[in-house]
Amino acid sequence: MVQTYQSPLRVYKHPFELVMLAYERRFPTTPLIPLLVGCEVLSDAYSEDSAERITERRFKLIVEAPYLIKKIISTDFVYFLQRNELDARARTLEIESKNETFSNRVIVLEKCRYFVHPENSDWTCFEQNAELDVRSFFGFESTIEKLAMKQYITNISKGKEILEHYIEVLREEGITYIPPWKPPETKNEVCDELSKLDLKSDGTVEEHSLDKLRRQGSMSPSGTKRHELEFQLEDDYIRRCLGELDPMQESKLIQFKKQIWFLQKGKLPTDSTLLRFLKSKDYNIEKARESLSQSLTWRKCHNVDQILQQYEAPPVVRAYFTGAWHHCDKEMRPLYLFKLGNMDVKGFLKTIGEDGLLKLAMRVCEEGLSLTEEYTRKHDRPITTWSLLIDLEGLNMRHLWRPGVKALLRIIEIVETNYPETLGRVLIIRAPRMFPILWTLVSTFIDETTRSKFLVYAGNDYQSAGGLIDYIEQDYIPDFLGGPCETKLPEGGLIPKSLYMSDADWEAGKHAMVEDTVYHSVSISRNHPVHEVILNIDAPGAVITWDFDVMKQDVVFNVLSIHKTVESIAPVSGLSLIDKAWTEGVDYECVETPILCHDGESIQGSHVTSRDGIYILQWKFCSDSVSTGMDTSSLIGGVAKAQVMYYYEILPSQHYRGSMSSLQSAHSGFSALSMKGGASR
Question: How many domains does the chain contain in total?
Answer without folding.
Answer: 5
